[in-house]
Amino acid sequence: MTSTSTSTSTSTSTSVLISELARAANEVERLTKPERAQLMERAAKAIEDLREQFGYVGAPVRNRSGDTVDLLRAMARAPGAYAAGRVTDALLDAAKIIPRSHGWSRRTWAMRNQAMAGRKVG
């Protein structure tokens, strides 16, 4: 698989997840506890993967309640312990953070590659 197709595949799966999060946030009362947990874990993993992929490890993405990944994971472990409104907020926060992180990382990676291309080797 080429880097272009990998990038396209990642962008597509990211777009699908964002759509699922936004849709679920609007229908949170219809979701089962396992569905809530699965979506929150997938969102946390997506944010975490983007951080790792672009060297943003250890730098939390914060929302009103602290680090989004930590909050999503806590909510995934106890999906019935949070009010529907709080779950909606968390899903919408994730749906906003993922494309920002993805966009930031793509720009940063492009700038890094441009800078590296300008260097002389040897």
**Tally of strands:** 2
Count of domains: 1
Beta-strand content = under 5%
Strand order of the largest sheet: 1-2
Report the helical percentage.
over 70%
Average pLDDT metric: 75
Structural class per helix/strand content?
A: mainly alpha
Major sheet characteristics? 2 strands, antiparallel
Overall morphology: globular
Distance between the termini: 30 Å
Tally of helical segments: 4
Order of SSEs: HHEEHH
Give the C-alpha Rg. Answer: 16 Å
Outline the fold blueprint:
Elements: H1 3-26, H2 33-53, E1 62-63, E2 66-67, H3 68-77, H4 84-117
Antiparallel strand pairs: 1-2
Helix pairs in contact: 1-2, 1-4, 2-3, 2-4, 3-4
Q: How would you portray this structure in words?
A:
By secondary structure, the protein is mainly α. It has one domain (3-117). Helix content is 73%, strand content 3%. The chain contains 4 helices and 2 strands; from the N terminus they run ααββαα.
List the keywords:
122 residues, mainly alpha
Question: In brief, what are we looking at here?
Answer:
This protein has helices at residues 3-26, 33-53, 68-77, 84-117; strands at residues 62-63, 66-67.
